[in-house]
Write a structure and sequence with these properties.
five-stranded mixed β-sheet; hydrolase; EC 3.1.3.16; 21% strand; alpha/beta; Calcineurin-like_PHP_lpxH
Amino acid sequence: MDKIAVISDIHGNLPALEAVLADIQQRDIHRIICLGDLVGKGPDSSKTIDIIKEKCEVTVMGNWDDFITKPAEFEALKWHQKKLSSTQEAYLKELPFSVEFMMSGKLIRMFHASPRSLYDRIQPWDSLEKRLSLFANTEYTENIKGSREPDVICYGDVHNAFIQHIKGKTLCNVGSVGNPLDLPQASYLILEGNDQDESPSAFSIQFVRIPYDIEKAIELARSVEMPDFEPYVQELKTARYRGLKN
């Protein structure tokens, strides 16, 4: 059977990315798909881009990958923009919106946030209607099987790893490699089945959590005087989003 590792939301956290890639290699998995947000929040966006370009078979665009290449008014974002080369900016601008393929008879679709937008955030606790909307075909999705909607959706963006079975379909969030907001360990998942096979057969989704050197990640950010340092430390140590009030 074929195995594909799916990662997302690295956010310039090099120690977390290296720990995840080491685990993937140890499992002898040679195919990796990335669901975006390579950059921002953490200090090593540039190195992250270069690694993802080398290691990932397909990378789709995340919201950070989009707006980091556009004019910015916030000083923190400008700081992250200055870390990128023109070649890296061009790479981010050309990332596809989504990727689709067949595996063990299932139509699998992957994107960063939703089939409608890079900025349409849907959490695992949102209404059934909102969660089911993630299976819709839109002008932005590839729709490789015409009007057929996907059987499996994998997405990133919300930094909360989960799997739900809804009305015969499977919805899963990959979680975050570099900025998890559910558990302070790097997250990714593994798909296992017969790739590009339209005949139904065994299929599985495995979630993996990887401890990594959080103190090293914090020191890397401190050493370059990264803006928004304290909120970043809070998120890495507690897996609690900086925007929460209590």
